[in-house]
Structures are given as C-alpha cells and as structure tokens.
Amino acid sequence: MYSQSEENYLKAIYHLEESSEKGVSTSKLSEELQTKAASVTEMLKRLAEKKLVNYQKYYGVSLTPEGKSWALAIIRKHRLWEYFLVECLNFNWDEVHEVAEQLEHIQSKKLVEELDCFLGRPSFDPHGDPIPNAAGVLPEFKKRRLSECEVGDTLICKGFSDASSSFLQFLDQHKIGLDTLVSIKSIQEFDESMLVKVRKSEIMLSKTATQNIFVEKNKESKIKEKV
C-alpha cells in the first residue's frame, strides 16, 4: 500500500506522460501538484526506491510498469466514483472531481469491483474520460479536438480535457455536454475562435474552449443528444 501523497504523484505523472512526448520534468510535476521543487525531488527519490518510477536528476521521470499499473488503478477508482456520484446521487458533473479525489484512495479491491459491477461496468466517466478495467486496459478513445476541425463539419462531443468546475459550468451555460451535436459555421482568422451551432443557437467559442472539447464525426444513427 502507498500513501495518498504517493498515489497523487503517480497519477499526476501518468497524466503528464499522456500529454507530453518529451517526458516529465520535475518543474512540470511541481507546477501540476503545486508543490516546491525540493519536495518533488524528495518524493521522486522515494518512488524510485520503491521501483514505481524511473528517475534520474536532470533527465525527468517516467513510470515503471508497476507504477503505471498503480496509477491506472487510482484513475479507475476516481472515474468510477465520478460516474456513481452523477448517475446515482444526482451530483452535477462539475461537482464530482474533488469528492472523487478523496474516494479514489479507498483501498478495498472488493468495493471497487462491486461498484463497477453495480454501475454496469461503464466505459467512460461523466466527462467522457475512459475508465480502465480491472486489468488496467483503457477502452479505445480516438482524441480529436474541436479546434482541429473545419467549417462545415458536423460533430458529436465525446469528451472534455478540462474538468474544472468553471469550464464545465461554461459548457452547461451553452447546453454543451456529452453527445451534443455541434456544427461549425465559421472560424475567425485572427484568433481561431469558432462560431458553432448547438441545437437552435449559434455560439462563439474561443480557441481555449475548442481545444478542450473532443469530438467525433457525426454518424446520425448513433446520435443521442441530451435535451
């Protein structure tokens, strides 16, 4: 068993590795965890001793197979709890992250397995993030950002890389959620903001917003828009 702090480090390294092709630097990890660099270095040495990370000063850090397996187990618990809170306890999707941050450290494997079974073994959490199975395998999820699409494209929202309350509340305000149909009407050359049609309304989205929305091409037979 590992401490909550150690688990938080493993999860943070995993997420940073996902979004970076150059490895994870201690400065990035320090920024992600809002922790002093000296504390990060000390923790990485401890995790390396436990063979959870590969760490060499000035060369950054990466997860070992055991570290990655443990990180995925934490992420699995986090996303299952988020799903449970939204689907069973009527939490809004912008309210669940901090609660799940606490629940993800529960160590009972039986509880997690029973929770997964009770929920019907969901593949994705309320934000569209894939939920690892008990073996740490993630469902296939092809990430394409709305910002990468073109005028005339009609797309379905499949996930959001920013799970902050402020961004999710912004999406709620504009009635954008999972499986929402979005059509691109125009793109501003100056700042790459997009005019999109959502249901009967046209909305201007900044590049920051469109970079945080994952979409897939519209297949009419599979559309299940939220009302």
UniProtKB/TrEMBL annotation:
Entry-linked SMART domains: FeoA, HTH_DTXR
Domain HTH dtxR-type: 1-64
Domain of life from the UniProt record: Bacteria
Subcellular locations according to the entry: Cytoplasm
Alphabetical UniProt keywords: Activator, Cytoplasm, DNA-binding, Manganese, Repressor, Transcription, Transcription regulation
Pfam family, one: FeoA
Role summary: In the presence of manganese, represses expression of mntH and mntS. Up-regulates expression of mntP.
Oligomer status and interactors: Homodimer.
Family: Belongs to the DtxR/MntR family.
Annotated protein name in UniProt: Transcriptional regulator MntR
